[in-house]
Design a protein that fits this description.
The structure is a homodimer. The first copy, chain A, has 11 helices and 13 strands. By secondary structure, chain A is α/β, with parallel strands linked by helices.
């Protein structure tokens, strides 16, 4: 059984950035998440693809040991998304979104996967997210992503989902929108009162701020040359984060904090660092190519670079050695 | 003799933020810089004020031991600036700029101040900056600020100034404009080739990235509630940074790096942390009120908060104990 069950999209993206363009390349939140997390623990994906989805693209995920038994192949087209990035890569315009089979997607969890101790709810309808959660044996940790579309359009459903999750992983703008607070510290306080035990605020090229019970900390992004395509950075970040947390977890209370906090600060900091490192590979290639090129050695080295940049005592990441 | 000589503006600002409005309050780059730096070493200011400048406002600077013998009082009005901030405080619109006596300002350095070992060149015309530098005995360290107005309008003069300074302290957008590079790492490499031994890129609420010979590191901003007015944050940051560096400096080579680097990474990290802490007080009040309210004890405590947030082994700041 996989340590993590991840629900999200497996898709084809077309992107244009100042550094090039690619058409219909393998992408989607569950793709990036699972490729990143698979460096730490076994991952299973629950998603839907169309009958146009290439076997060679499933092989990419399988090559990293991702369990694809929960990927439904439905009649119709695979989810497609197209976007163009600004010159500094900080803004993007969505050119088209074609839901395809994703419009009918009803996640269903096989009996064998209902006991996965970690659950990642990718950015889909909050009712679907909660439906997946309710099919599971209570996991040790539930992490969740969302976006402005759900925050604005499905708030009541989202509130019910927020009440059952442990870790919310969103960006600055989403945190402000969800809380109605422009000050980030105030926004975080409000969001933590909605249910999540910890909030990870992704701030793109600046890093991530983490808020929990009695702590707040910051993990910088690596400052790198050769950044060509930010697509998937947030999902790769979540994959490294949740994958590393799952790998650090041991039976018993180790990663459960004192005085009401669920997640211990030290483990969370290491895991957010792991997410940062995985995202740094993603942005250095189009689609998944940067992430796929990352060897365990390269990940370890970059973790050392991050520790030096951030001023931390270096620690080793709990990478899987097998392949 | 003061350890730092700071050239810049002493001004009256009118600001509107979502949290309130203030009219004609004490401000200016040299004001914020010197109030922040004075917690670490003695500072002298070179600036000009008009005949309308209130003695009580000079008393504010004098109360922190700032040497005001280089502040010229000229016939005419004090420099005034008015601005309105956006709801999230990240953008501002300049409503008016009235140069007043600042239009005729020709800095002149008294003989006694020409041997100050640290020189801060606030954001003024690059020729004036270089004129001040040339009046000095060669300082141990020259730090410099600039802005889009000089980068776009006085580039040749600015290039000559960049060639003589050690530390350039600018923001993201200025670094991109100065280098013509949108990637920050590429921008930094190019700027370091223009002369500065180290580049500090201020990123507002996100923190600061630091680039030197053979190192790059990041210092996060403190995530705080009660932020009401960002005016002066950058100058307070520079004051804490240069003040702390000056306080850490001892006769001999301690803060000079190996292999061509002028400034040692560890000292610079501590100093950037000090700048971050001083800026955090400034933004919690209008004008200088947040900075003035910061006691040595509060500064030490906040330095501890920063170390915890950043994941550093806590270190003490080299604060002056006398008052």
């Amino acid at each position: 059984m996989s340590r993590i069950l991840a629900v999200g999209s497996v898709a084809y993206d077309s992107v244009e950035t100042p550094f090039g363009a690619r058409k219909e390349i393998l992408a989607g939140s569950a793709t990036y998440f699972s490729l990143a997390a698979s460096h730490f623990v076994p991952v299973a994906v629950v998603a839907a693809v169309g009958d146009d989805f290439k076997a060679s693209d499933l092989d990419v995920l399988a090559s990293r040991g991702v369990d694809l038994s929960g990927v439904q192949r439905l009649a119709g087209r695979t989810f497609r998304w197209a976007a163009r990035y600004s010159d500094d890569l900080n803004d993007r315009t969505t050119l088209s979104t074609e839901l395809g089979v994703f419009a009918e997607f009803k996640p269903s969890i096989a009996a064998a996967q209902r006991q996965s101790p970690y659950l990642f709810l990718g950015n889909i309808d909050p009712d679907l997210q909660r439906g997946v959660f309710e099919e599971m044996e209570p996991p040790r940790l539930v992490a969740c992503d969302t976006m402005n579309f759900w925050i604005e359009g499905r708030r009541a459903a989202l509130d019910l989902t927020l009440a059952v999750i442990d870790l919310l992983v969103i960006n600055d703008a989403e945190a402000r929108l969800l809380s109605g607070e422009s000050n980030l510290a105030s926004a975080a306080r409000k969001i933590l009162s909605m249910g999540p035990k910890a909030l990870i605020v992704k701030r793109g090229e600046y890093g991530a701020a983490v808020f929990g019970s009695g702590f707040v900390f910051f993990v910088p992004a690596l400052i790198l040359e050769g950044v060509v395509d930010p697509t998937g950075a947030g999902d790769s970040f979540a994959g490294g984060l949740v994958g590393c947390l799952a790998a650090l977890d041991r039976p018993g209370p180790e990663i459960r904090g004192k005085d009401g906090g669920w997640i211990e600060e030290a483990a969370l900091r290491t895991a957010v660092g792991a997410g940062t490192v995985m995202a740094s590979f993603t942005v250095q290639g189009f689609g998944v190519e940067g992430l796929l090129a990352a060897s365990a050695e390269a990940i370890e080295k970059r973790q050392g670079d991050l520790a030096r940049m951030a001023g931390w005592t270096p620690t080793r990441l709990p990478l899987r050695r097998q392949r």
